Amino acid sequence: MKFSNTYSQLDGAFYQRISPARVSRPQLLLWNDNLAGMLQLTDEFCRDKSLLAEYFSGNRLPDGADPIALAYAGHQFGSFNPQLGDGRAHLLGEILGAGGQRYDIQLKGSGQTRFSRQGDGKCAIGPAVREYIMSEAMFALGVPTSRCLAVVGSGDLVFREAAKPGAIVTRVAASHIRVGTFEYFAARGDMESLKALADFTLDRHFPEIARNGDLDNKDKILHLLQAVIGKQIQLIVSWLRVGFIHGVMNTDNTAVSGETIDFGPCAMMGIYHPGTVFSSIDSQGRYAFGNQPGIAQWNMARLAEALLPLIDTVPEKAVEQAEPLIRQFARDFDQAYREMLANKLGIASPCGQANELAKTLLGQMQDKQLDYTQTFTRLALSLEDATEAEKLSQELGPWYHDWRVLLTDTGIAASSARTLMDKTNPQVIPRNHHVEAIIKEYEESGASQRIDDFLTVLRSPYRRLAQTPDFQDLPADGDRHYRTFCGT
Ligand code: AMP
Ligand code: MG
Questions:
Q1: Is 33 a catalytic residue?
Q2: Hey, is 217 helix, strand or coil?
Q3: Nearest 5°: CA angle at 174, between 200 and 61?
Q4: Which of 41, 244, 286, 468 is the most buried (most CB within 10 A)?
Q5: From ligand 1's centre to the CA of 113, what distance in Å?
Q6: Which of 316, 11, 10, 308 has the alpha carbon at shortest distance from 182?
């Protein structure tokens, strides 16, 4: 592993330098070969499983690692907490990937830090396996996301509602800079660090802005805000396309890179309903499926607030410049969302009629309790399968006819509509009951006979494989009783 660390070169206010805790019997449970390739890890490095278990449990530090726990704050369910930070994670350092892209390599569940508050710094095997499966599925679905390189069993017990086997998950992300990182320095009035963080973020994620000689410092901050907003819009549209519910969209879980991070209570929506919530702690439904765009906009407003002092020393003037960008979120989101929905119906460029059709379809799916994923894949199939077309026209009534007429009237051939639909609508999502079944196997025996097949299927979400049907059946209770937990 060739580390090339930049975050740990920042001032000490940004982190605590601290080594991971030792674990008693590290055992490599999951290893991501594909990601190891992207990170240019050599075959020789990847060969020795017991050495990998030592490295990715935190028992042994790879050469060049400089472990730190990052400071950040965050709005959790709407309330500001000025002091969060990595309470159970260690950033080992950064690695340059095959394309020159810089990746953070972070251990999670690797012991206490200055930021642990009451927590034990550990992670149970369930949430670790869940993060591995869900992030891998999201990556294959084409959703911007952090990924997991490894899950290592610690050999120690962690105590949650019951004693559970412990694990460490290695997360690989474009960075771990969160909206909450900006809030941390803004809340302390530490302008020097806030400025250093903005410069660092620009260099790392938006070099085209950083290097644009036509922009002064204040303009660069406004461009940074606009760029982060753009990434957030793309992210949420992708989530809505595949039916993903993050579950805990606090500002400390919002990466400015626009990647999905922190998979704690996330889940997939089966039956379409914008009010779908699975997280046991989200009793008000703040982070329900259909609320995600509004929450993302709210989170961007918190980022804007944190950046205000860098935009203008006169607060009113700063607000005047940042506010239009936040308002523009809604319009830009709407446009991107309409385009995505049109694509789901086989229509490349959105129009008023496509939008109306999409809205009516979603309404029908909600009323008739139809599965979100299956409805779109069945529609695609029906373009070339008369039996499916007949069935859907029975189920959806005149809507089905109207949709086909719109395709014909706008001169879209069935085959090109199908092609667009097939790459927009996944055949495969990580169905909640299958994710839970695999996690249960790990909790009970530290292994799963079926995970390789499951991952193979998840890695091919737009193409059915022989094993696909084994993992795409619908849950018997329609997920009505399904609950997720933060896994802390
Ligand atoms: P999360 O729910 O994973 O987004 O975590 C929210 C905050 O709680 C972060 O600051 C975490 O580092 C911290 N945290 C969560 N679980 C633990 C734990 N078991 N030990 C220490 N800190 C934790
Ligand atoms: Mg978090």
A1: no
A2: helix
A3: 95
A4: 244
A5: 11
A6: 308
282's tokens:
């989200």
Residue nearest to ligand 1 atom 14, measured at CA: 87
pLDDT score, position 488: 53
Give the DSSP per-residue string, 221-232. Answer: HHHHHHHHHHHH
- Report field, pTM of the whole predicted structure over 0.90: yes
* Residue 241, token pair as written in the block: 């396309």
Residue 486: the pLDDT is: 84
Q: Hey, what are 324's tokens?
A: 């239009």
Q: What is the pLDDT of residue 292?
A: 98
The phi and psi torsions of 277 (rounded to 5 degrees) equal: -135, 135
The torsion angle over the Cα atoms of residues 109, 145, 82 and 188, rounded to 10 degrees, is: 120
pLDDT means over runs of 10, the chain (488 residues): 96 98 98 97 96 98 97 98 98 95 98 97 98 98 98 97 96 98 98 98 98 98 98 98 98 98 97 98 97 98 98 98 98 98 96 97 98 98 98 98 96 96 98 98 97 98 97 97 86
Ligand 1 atom closest to Cα of residue 121: 20
- Those residues whose C-beta lies under 8 Å from the C-beta of residue 482, and which sit 6 or more positions away, are 267, 278, 432, 433, 436, 475
Residue 252 Cα: closest atom of ligand 1:
4
DSSP 110: B
Would you say the CB of residue 126 lies under 6 angstroms from ligand 1? no
**Helix (H, G, I), strand (E, B), or coil: what is residue 25?**
coil
Return the residue whose CA atom lies nearest to atom 13 of ligand 1.
Answer: 87
> Which regions of 8-50 does DSSP assign to beta strands (E)?
15-17, 27-31
183 lines ligand 1 (CB under 6 A): no
DSSP string for 326-366: HHHHHHHHHHHHHHHHHHHTT-SS--HHHHHHHHHHHHHHH
Q: Which of 88, 108, 115, 266 to mutate to test the pocket of ligand 1 (most atoms within 8 A of CB)?
A: 88
User: Maximum Cα–Cα distance for the chain, whole Å?
Assistant: 67
Measured from the CA of 86, which atom of ligand 1 is nearest? 12
Distance CA 202, CA 220 (A): 8
Tell me what pLDDT residue 358 has: 98
Cβ neighbours of residue 404 under 8 Å, at least 6 residues apart? 389
State the Cα–Cα distance between residues 173 and 351, nearest whole angstrom: 36
> Smallest Cα–Cα separation from 347: which of 416, 250, 259, 399?
416
Among 252, 262, 371, 422, the active-site one is 252
List of residues 6+ apart from 379 with CB closer than 8 A: 345, 346, 392, 403, 421
CA of 119 from ligand 1 middle (Å) equals 7
Distance 195 CA to ligand 1 centre (A): 26
Look at the block and give the residue holding tokens 């085959």: 415
